[in-house]
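Input record, target 12 of the design panel.
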């Protein structure tokens, strides 16, 4: 066999090998494309749900998040009092003898400080009825005595400089614990309020002070069972 014949046969073999490799690569690419399309279709609903949540207002997104969970917890949707314009959503979750309070609020005056309180059924201006009446009109539901530290939830952050604020508080102390650290059983909470602290920087008093803590929003607490 001459050199030219051997060279021609070698080229034919090389072309066949290259064709086989290209065919395998094409098949692999098609399989990957089909698999990616199927995964995209399967995740379409989840993606649409995530996009829907992203395009909601922060208050709507917080509402969806708070209402999604269940268990030994409760929620409150706060509405404005005295034309304050403040709205908020809060969740209270109890684990053992500790409770975590989280919230999101809008409409706050950037130059004022706000603090939240747990309120019993007889609290004045509780605004639990429709229309946000400015006088207490909630029927008495719980009569267990609580002290001031148990009713204090905590301050909304940042303290000043923003109309939109968040709340994240842990209450785990005994009923006698000072400074708002005292735990309060969820069944003793009738409503949750937001009040303006007109004396920011001063120590918390030993008892409720209606002059210092002025009502700005309130909502009924709904315990999930």
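The sequence produced for target 12 reads:
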């Amino acid at each position: 066999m001459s050199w030219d014949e051997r060279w021609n046969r070698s080229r034919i073999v090389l072309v066949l090998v290259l064709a086989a490799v290209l065919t395998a690569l094409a098949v692999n690419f098609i399989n990957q494309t089909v698999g990616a399309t199927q995964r995209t279709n399967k995740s379409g609903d989840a993606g649409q749900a995530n996009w829907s949540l992203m395009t909601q207002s922060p208050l709507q997104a917080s509402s969806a998040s708070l209402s999604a969970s269940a268990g030994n917890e409760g929620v409150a949707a706060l509405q404005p009092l005295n034309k304050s314009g403040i709205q908020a959503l809060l969740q209270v979750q109890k684990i053992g003898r500790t409770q975590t309070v989280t919230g999101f609020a809008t409409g706050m005056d950037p130059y004022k400080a706000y603090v939240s309180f747990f309120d019993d059924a007889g609290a004045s201006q509780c605004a639990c009825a429709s229309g946000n009446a400015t006088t207490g009109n909630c029927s008495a539901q719980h009569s267990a005595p609580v002290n001031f530290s148990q009713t204090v939830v905590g301050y909304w952050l940042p303290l000043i400089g923003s109309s939109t604020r968040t709340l994240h508080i842990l209450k785990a102390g005994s009923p006698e614990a000072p400074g708002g650290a005292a735990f309060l059983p969820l069944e003793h909470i009738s409503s949750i309020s937001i009040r303006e602290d007109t004396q920011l920087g001063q120590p918390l008093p030993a008892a409720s002070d209606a002059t210092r803590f002025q009502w700005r929003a309130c909502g009924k607490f709904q315990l999930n069972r």
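The mean pLDDT is 73.
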